[in-house]
Amino acid sequence: MSLPSRPGAMTLTARAVLFDMDGTLVDSTSIVEQVWTTFAGRYGLDIEEILRSSHGVQAMDTVRRFAPAGADVHALAAELGRMELAETRGIVPVPGALELLASLPPDAVALVTSASRDLAEVRMAAAGIGVPAASVTSEDVVRGKPHPEGYLRAADLLGVDPADAVVFEDAPAGIAAGVAAGIRTVAVGPNAGELPEGVLHIPDYSGVSVTTRLTGTGPRTLSFSF
Questions:
Q1: pLDDT tens digits, residue range 44-101?
Q2: Of 37, 124, 169, 217, whose CB count within 10 A is highest?
Q3: What is the DSSP string of 1-57?
Q4: Which among 133, 165, 145, 177 is positioned nearest to 15, based on CA atoms?
Q5: CA 196 to chain centre
Q6: Catalytic: 164?
Q7: Exactly one of 22, 27, 164, 170 is catalytic; which is it?
Q8: 3-state DSSP call for residue 215?
Q9: Number of helices (H) and strands (E), helices first, in the chain?
Q10: Omega of the bond leading into 7 within 30 degrees of 0 (cis)
Q11: Torsion of CA 109, 191, 55, 160, to 10 degrees
Q12: H helices of 73-202, where?
């Protein structure tokens, strides 16, 4: 489902907001494709198939799925991780992401990424975005996306019920994780695939604004206008 294009046509109210990183806050497409192309070329794999299924999931899970029998998947994942850490050229924020983040209370924001903590810090810094104090990276979960563990953990870190949060995600695996966590989910950008019922879609954050409301009788709320 797509959001209406007219500004202010829809409002979504929450107490906390949970962001994925790659493709959602940070555009790192060129680097991701470069790394997986190297991996595919080494083993004669179909790069298009890898890219279709790797977006939004932990690198280790993708290596396990596609590496040939007998390969040292831990060594391969570590090598790919070093390649990603070494390259930051072309990393930019998704349009409108900086402005939206600046308008949000820091203690209402969490990052939930399939990347390692080191990689998250490198890519966020390259895009000029600070890593939220509440963040869940690959080291913090047992089961990566599309499992909801990461998003449920982030909601707990922020002290909110999943029903009181909203997820912004760009990839099918992450969207599935948000939905499975019982969190209202907004898909961002062109790679979201076929959307589950009730998932909204925006091209980027250019048309998104947020208003913070404080009342004496209830919790602080964030009203997102699309």
A1: 888 888 887 776 677 888 888 888 888 888 888 888 888 888 888 889 999 999 999 9
A2: 169
A3: -PPPSSTTS-EEEESEEEE-SBTTTEE-HHHHHHHHHHHHHHHT--HHHHHHHHTTS
A4: 165
A5: 17
A6: no
A7: 22
A8: coil
A9: 8, 11
A10: no
A11: 20
A12: 73-86, 97-102, 117-126, 149-158, 172-180
Beta bridge partner(s), residue 134: 110
Whole-angstrom distance, CA of residue 97 vs CA of residue 74: 33
In this structure, which amino acid lies at residue 146?
P
In whole angstroms, what is the distance from residue 15 CA to residue 222 CA?
6
CA distance 190 to 177: 18
Largest CA distance in the chain: 62
pTM of this prediction? 0.85
Residue 141 near residue 120 (C-beta atoms within 8 A)? no
Residues of the chain with pLDDT under 70: 1-9, 55-56
Give me the count of residues in the chain: 226
Which two structure tokens, joined as six digits, stand for 149?
């563990």
* Catalytic residue (one of 20, 164, 170, 204): 20
- What angle do the packed helices 73-86 and 59-66 form, to 10 degrees? 130
- Bridge partners, 111 (sequence order): 19, 135
Q: Please indicate whether residue 170 is annotated as part of the active site.
A: no
